[in-house]
Design goal:
glutamate-1-semialdehyde 2,1-aminomutase activity, binds pyridoxal-5'-phosphate, 432 residues, Aspartate Aminotransferase, domain 1, globular
């Protein structure tokens, strides 16, 4: 067990109690710090680029509640809008004009989306889109990529990255084999493997779903030609191309990774940012495909809290902030500096390291690289990452507690925050 020089007495007390109340003491596995060791930090409050724990320690936060906090935590405009919305009630379970506003914003922004359905999480968005892929094509098989995470629905828990990778569970008990029999997997950035799957399964593959930039096996961008290649193959075989932009949507560009790379998939899933920190998800795409969704069409999918007025409000305000001129340039500039200088410091300290960034998403691996897929990512020195993570935490920098997660910056991260982070990194890297 790694000992800490931080005073985290209260965190430890609360987490010890939590472990008796909730499995592993958490509401979602990666938060428990299992893959980096040591105690997780119990948060008290968050603001801008910072998080404060229950012992009063402040951290520069590079997780941003796993992506949603792109404008900075608890942005005053979002809070103000939420206070006003709260007065009108917390849930309607009936149509509201807020849904129209956010739907229009999403449709305007994301090239592939002509119609959208709101749900409550990224998991729900992905499990619903999978049903839609099957309903539309009348085919049952799908292709996903090793290390890509599409939420915790049964049919996606095959080589699923994220917490599953972190915990070393290639699959989960409780997932019936019959549920994953139709889930085919290929290595990311490997078009030949995808072609081979289509050839071996003629006329039975509904489509291909992927994170257009992988964030759940660490940060892995697509090779040039990979996304256009997938579009070509899926079209050739009458299958659908689905981008899971739960993480990359409104982060890589206002229109997501699909805008950045100029590839328009048939369907897209969203989450995180479009709820501005409240629970949300969405799926959308071509109008003819979305017309299958109930009650317009026969594919059933529903939700008591879907289109929740508070989530819609936080999402609308967040997108309003993001569409201001210069936001993505700022995210890119700050994050580029962080990623480039971090890599340089690590190399100067003699470590094998590789990584990169696009817009406000970054990552690095303790291996020579290059990393094109999950197998390459697994060559990373995980023990070294754990020590780096703990060292940074002790110096007030909160990084994702797993080598297999991307990092996120926000519009609230300043050059001073980056200076502080790099100084901490230099000290830690020279001591590993
Ligand atoms: C790409 C991707 N898809 C789906 C999900 C699942 O979203 P949620 O955790 O909101 O269920 C995540 C979560 O991190 C994700 O990164």
């Amino acid at each position: 067990m790694i000992t800490s020089s931080l005073n985290t007495t209260k965190s430890e007390e609360i987490f010890a109690a939590a472990q008796k109340l909730m499995p592993g003491g958490v509401s979602s596995p990666v938060r428990a710090f299992k893959s980096v060791g040591g105690q997780p930090i119990v948060f008290d409050h968050v603001k801008g680029a910072y998080a404060w724990d229950v012992d009063g320690n402040r951290y520069i936060d590079y997780i941003g509640t796993w992506g949603p906090a792109i404008c900075g935590h608890a942005h005053p405009d979002v809070l103000k809008a939420l206070h006003e919305a709260l007065e009108k009630g917390t849930s309607f379970g009936a149509p509201s004009s807020l849904e129209n506003v956010l739907a229009e914003m999403v449709i305007d922004a994301v090239p592939s989306i002509e119609m959208v359905r709101f749900v409550n999480s990224g998991t729900e968005a992905c499990m619903s889109v999978l049903r839609l892929m099957r309903a539309f094509t009348g085919r049952e098989k799908i292709i996903k990529f090793e290390g890509c995470y599409h939420g915790h629905a049964d049919m996606f828990l095959v080589k699923a990255g994220s917490g599953v990778a972190t915990l070393g569970l290639p699959d989960s008990p409780g997932v019936p084999k019959s549920t994953t029999d139709n889930t085919l997997t290929a290595p990311f950035n490997n078009l030949e493997a995808v072609k081979a799957l289509f050839e071996a399964n003629p006329g039975t593959i509904a489509g291909v779903i992927l994170e257009p930039i992988v964030g759940n096996a660490g940060f892995i961008p697509p090779d040039a030609g990979f996304l256009p290649g997938l579009q070509e193959i899926t079209r050739e075989h009458g299958a659908l191309l689905v981008f899971d932009e739960v993480m990359t949507g409104f982060r890589i560009a206002y229109g997501g990774a699909q805008e950045k790379f100029g590839i328009t998939p048939d369907l897209t899933t969203l989450g995180k940012i479009i709820g501005g920190g409240l629970p949300v998800g969405a799926y959308g795409g071509r109008r003819d495909i979305m017309a299958m969704v109930a009650p317009a069409g026969p594919m059933y999918q529903a939700g008591t809290l879907s289109g929740n007025p508070l989530a819609m409000t936080a999402g609308i305000k967040t997108l309003e902030l993001l569409r201001q001129p210069g936001t993505y340039e700022q995210l890119d500039r700050v994050t580029k500096r962080l990623a480039n200088e971090l890599l340089k410091l690590a190399k100067d300290a003699g470590h094998a390291v590789c990584g990169g960034q696009i817009s406000g998403m970054f990552g690095f691996f303790f291996t020579e690289g290059p990393v094109h897929n999950y197998e390459d990512a697994k060559l990373s020195d995980l023990n070294k990452f754990s020590r780096f993570h703990r060292g940074m935490l002790e110096r007030g920098v909160y990084l994702a507690p797993s080598q297999f997660e991307a990092g996120f910056t926000s519009l609230a991260h300043t050059d001073e925050d980056i200076d502080f982070t790099l100084e901490a990194a230099q000290a830690v890297l020279s001591s590993l």
